[in-house]
C-alpha cells in the first residue's frame, strides 16, 4: 500500500490500516430495532493508506476503481456531494467535520484497496468507512472508542450516502476478535466475544457468494425499516426489541396490517434465535445451532421477504446435501449464504450448491474465505 500511495501522491502515508468485512451468523434486520446480532469478521477487508495534508482537500483513490483521483473540499462536503465509492470515505470526513473533530479543516490523501466482494452482502462499504475512521482517528489522535467510531462510520452511510443501515456492520468491522463472533446488543451497545471454534466439534462454516447483486439503496431496506417502526408504534413500544416472544401472538393480533404483522414476527422471533444460538455456543454445543439458522432463513423468506431465488436455491441445495443449517446473511435482495456443515461434508455441499445453480441457469456461486478474523487494526506507517 505504501508503494501505491507513493505512486499517486509522492512520499509516504502517515498510517496504514486494515478493516474487515463481516458475515452475520444470525440476527438479521434486528439491529435497527434495538435488537441482538452475532456477526464475525472476515479475513477479507479494505486497506487504507492515509496522510494528512493542510490543503483543506480530501484526495481519494481506489485501486478497484482505476487511477483517477477524486477530490473534494472538506469545507464544502454535504450529503450527496460525492457519489460512487468515494462517497463513503468522503462521508466519514464530513461526519467528523460536523462533529467538530477536524480542527483547522485539515485535508487528507487516501489510497484504498479491498478484497471484499462488492455486492455480496458482506459489508464492503462498512469496511471502507471503518478503515477511514480509524486511519483519521490515528493521524489526528482523536481517541475514538469503538462505538464512537462506529457511530461516525454509520452516520456516513446513513446520512451522506443515503443507505439506512443499522450499526451492526460497523461494530463488527471495528470490534470483532479473531476466532470469535461478536454478540452485540444494539440498544446498550454492550458487546461480548463468543468463541466460534466450530472446528473443535468437527464442523465448518461455509460462506457462499450467490453472485446475485446485493442492492439496498433502491428503497426496499427503507420499506422494511418503516414497517418495523409502524409495528412498534402500533404496539406502543420504543422498538420491536421490547416485544416479548411469549406475548407475540397477542401482540400480532393488535396489528391490523398483514405486512407489518409479518415484519414484526420476524424481528421478535429472530431476536430469540440470536439468544438461543449464543446460549448453545456458550455451552459448547455448536452442532445444535443449525435448525436455528435455517429457521432464520425461512423467516427472512416468508415474513420479511428479503430473499431472492439464488439465496433460496443455495439454502435448499445445501440442506439437501447434508448441511446442518443454512441461511442468507446480510440485508438480503441478493448477497451470500452462510452454511453450517460437518467438515467432512463441505466439498459435497459446495458442489451441490454449484450444481443447483447450473440447473437453474444462475451465475456460478463463489465460495468466500470465512475464518473468524480480527477487527480493524493498524498495519503500520512511518510514524509507527
Automatic annotation (TrEMBL):
The keyword Protein biosynthesis does not apply. Residues 90-175 form the GHMP kinase N-terminal domain. SUPFAM superfamilies: GHMP Kinase, C-terminal domain (SSF55060), Ribosomal protein S5 domain 2-like (SSF54211). InterPro entries: Galactokinase (IPR000705), Galactokinase_CS (IPR019741), GalKase_N (IPR019539), GHMP_kinase_C_dom (IPR013750), GHMP_kinase_C_sf (IPR036554), GHMP_kinase_N_dom (IPR006204), GHMP_knse_ATP-bd_CS (IPR006203), Mevalonate/galactokinase (IPR006206). One of its GO terms (molecular function) is metal ion binding. Residues 280-358 form the GHMP kinase C-terminal domain. Keywords: ATP-binding, Carbohydrate metabolism, Cytoplasm, Galactose metabolism, Kinase, Magnesium, Metal-binding, Nucleotide-binding, Transferase. Pfam families: GalKase_gal_bdg, GHMP_kinases_C, GHMP_kinases_N. Residues 364-384 are annotated as: Disordered. GO terms for cellular component: cytosol. Gene3D superfamilies: 3.30.230.10, GHMP kinase, C-terminal domain (3.30.70.890). It is an enzyme of class 2 (transferase). Its EC number is 2.7.1.6. Residues 4-52 form the Galactokinase N-terminal domain. PANTHER family: GALACTOKINASE-RELATED (PTHR10457:SF7), MEVALONATE KINASE/GALACTOKINASE (PTHR10457). Belongs to the GHMP kinase family. GalK subfamily. This is Galactokinase. It comes from Pseudonocardia sulfidoxydans NBRC 16205.
Amino acid at each position: 500500500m505504501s508503494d501505491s500511495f507513493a505512486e499517486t501522491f509522492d512520499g509516504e502515508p502517515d498510517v496504514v490500516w486494515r478493516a474487515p468485512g463481516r458475515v452475520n451468523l444470525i440476527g438479521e434486520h434486528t439491529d435497527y430495532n434495538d435488537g441482538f446480532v452475532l456477526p464475525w469478521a472476515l479475513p477479507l477487508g479494505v486497506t487504507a493508506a492515509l496522510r494528512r495534508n493542510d490543503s483543506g482537500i480530501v484526495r481519494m483513490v481506489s485501486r478497484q476503481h482505476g487511477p483517477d483521483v477524486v477530490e473534494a473540499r472538506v469545507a464544502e462536503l454535504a450529503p450527496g456531494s460525492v457519489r460512487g465509492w468515494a462517497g463513503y470515505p468522503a462521508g466519514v470526513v464530513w461526519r467528523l467535520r460536523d462533529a467538530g473533530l477536524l480542527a483547522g479543516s485539515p485535508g487528507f490523501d487516501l489510497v484504498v484497496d479491498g478484497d471484499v466482494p462488492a455486492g455480496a452482502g458482506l459489508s464492503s462499504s462498512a469496511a471502507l468507512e471503518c478503515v477511514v475512521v480509524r486511519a483519521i482517528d490515528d493521524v489526528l489522535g482523536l481517541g475514538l472508542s469503538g462505538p464512537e467510531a462506529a457511530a461516525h462510520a454509520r452516520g456516513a452511510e446513513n446520512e451522506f450516502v443515503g443507505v439506512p443501515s443499522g450499526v451492526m456492520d460497523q461494530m463488527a468491522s471495528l470490534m470483532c476478535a479473531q476466532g470469535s463472533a461478536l454478540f452485540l446488543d444494539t440498544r446498550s451497545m454492550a458487546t461480548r466475544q463468543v468463541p466460534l471454534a466450530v472446528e473443535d466439534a468437527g464442523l465448518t462454516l461455509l460462506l457462499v457468494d450467490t453472485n446475485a447483486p446485493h442492492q439496498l439503496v433502491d428503497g426496499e431496506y427503507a420499506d422494511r425499516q418503516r414497517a418495523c417502526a409502524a409495528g412498534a408504534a402500533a404496539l406502543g413500544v420504543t422498538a420491536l426489541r421490547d416485544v416479548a416472544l411469549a406475548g407475540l401472538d397477542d401482540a400480532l393480533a393488535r396489528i391490523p396490517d398483514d405486512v407489518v404483522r409479518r415484519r414484526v414476527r420476524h424481528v421478535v422471533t429472530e431476536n430469540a434465535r440470536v439468544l438461543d444460538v449464543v446460549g448453545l455456543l456458550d455451552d459448547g454445543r455448536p452442532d445444535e445451532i443449525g435448525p436455528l439458522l435455517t429457521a432464520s432463513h425461512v423467516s427472512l423468506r416468508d415474513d420479511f421477504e428479503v430473499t431472492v431465488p439464488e439465496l433460496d436455491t443455495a439454502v435448499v441445495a445445501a440442506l439437501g446435501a447434508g448441511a446442518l443449517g443454512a441461511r442468507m446473511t446480510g440485508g438480503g435482495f441478493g448477497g451470500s449464504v452462510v452454511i453450517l456443515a460437518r467438515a467432512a461434508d463441505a466439498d459435497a455441499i459446495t458442489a451441490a450448491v454449484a450444481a443447483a445453480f447450473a440447473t437453474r441457469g444462475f451465475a456460478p456461486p463463489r465460495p468466500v474465505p470465512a475464518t473468524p478474523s480480527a477487527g480493524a487494526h493498524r498495519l503500520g506507517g512511518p510514524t509507527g
